[in-house]
């Protein structure tokens, strides 16, 4: 009976995500921000009443969470597991249609948020460099630890590693990147690295998109601290917003 209930639950969630407007709503929330139903209606390109119905369905299935502040109502993803599931589905979606040309803007593929950590080409390059330099060491297929030199590196960035290891979530783990189809860094360490990059203005984040823009200072610091070389000309081209329809940053 338990297995049967699980099957029903999976089919209900799959059906909810499969609806195009609801997919756009969920993907738009993968940057970790909370948004109003009006904002999400614009993203999904549906009426306010239709968006409210979609949000009610997503809330009933525990895919989104409602936050009430006074007269204002905001919606966010229920938790990071929903973002991880969406990211995995994006990978599978590309694999099932190898001849499909994605409409995702180059700047979103280059650097973006994956809930609370960094994703895209830049994140994969950083992940690979951390591994190659011996700063990040795999303990199994789904977990990493820092070497002594890795702890020094992150301490120099002002990241308190001991505090992160005490959190009730994975410290560091691979997260399969849907655009690169290779891992980027997830877990509390990945989240801390993104926050450091934002605070130090290495990257800037659009308020209404998942896209991250690598700054000139960020390019220099990432090269100096991590040894990841990025061509200035390539980055300038990738940083410019691409022409796209409303909500285009969330299409695949």
Automatic annotation (TrEMBL):
A Pfam entry, by short name: HTH_5
Highest taxon of source: Bacteria
GO biological process: response to cadmium ion; response to lead ion
The HTH arsR-type domain, residue ranges: 2-97
InterPro entries listed in its UniProt record: ArsR-like_HTH (IPR011991), HTH_ArsR_DNA-bd_dom (IPR001845), HTH_Metal-responsive_Reg (IPR052543), WH-like_DNA-bd_sf (IPR036388), WH_DNA-bd_sf (IPR036390)
MF GO annotations: cadmium ion sensor activity; DNA binding; DNA-binding transcription factor activity; lead ion binding
Regions crossing the membrane: none
CDD domains assigned to the protein according to its UniProt record, in alphabetical order: HTH_ARSR
Name the record gives this protein: Helix-turn-helix transcriptional regulator
Species, as recorded: Pseudomonas khorasanensis
């Amino acid at each position: 009976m338990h297995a049967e209930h699980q099957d029903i639950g999976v089919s209900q969630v799959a059906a909810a995500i499969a609806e195009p407007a609801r997919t756009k709503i969920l993907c738009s929330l993968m940057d970790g921000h909370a948004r109003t139903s009006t904002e999400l209606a614009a993203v999904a390109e549906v009426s306010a009443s239709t968006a409210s119905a979609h949000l009610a369905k997503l809330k009933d299935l525990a895919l989104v969470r409602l936050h009430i502040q006074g007269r204002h109502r905001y919606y966010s993803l229920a938790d990071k597991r929903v973002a991880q599931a969406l990211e995995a589905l994006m990978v599978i979606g590309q694999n099932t249609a190898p001849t499909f040309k994605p409409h995702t803007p180059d700047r979103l593929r280059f650097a973006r948020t994956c809930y609370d950590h960094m994703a895209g080409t830049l994140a994969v390059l950083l992940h690979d460099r951390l591994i190659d330099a011996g700063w990040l060491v795999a303990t199994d297929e789904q977990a990493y630890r820092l070497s002594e030199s890795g702890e020094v590196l992150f301490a120099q960035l002002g990241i308190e590693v001991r505090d992160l290891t005490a959190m009730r979530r994975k410290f560091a783990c691979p997260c399969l990147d849907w655009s690169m189809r290779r891992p980027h860094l997830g877990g509390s360490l990945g989240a801390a690295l993104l926050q450091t990059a934002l605070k130090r203005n290495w990257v800037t984040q659009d308020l209404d998109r998942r896209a991250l823009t690598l700054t000139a200072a960020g390019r220099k610091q990432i090269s100096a601290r991590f040894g990841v070389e990025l061509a200035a000309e390539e980055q300038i081209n990738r940083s410019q917003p691409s022409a796209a329809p409303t909500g285009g940053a969330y299409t695949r």
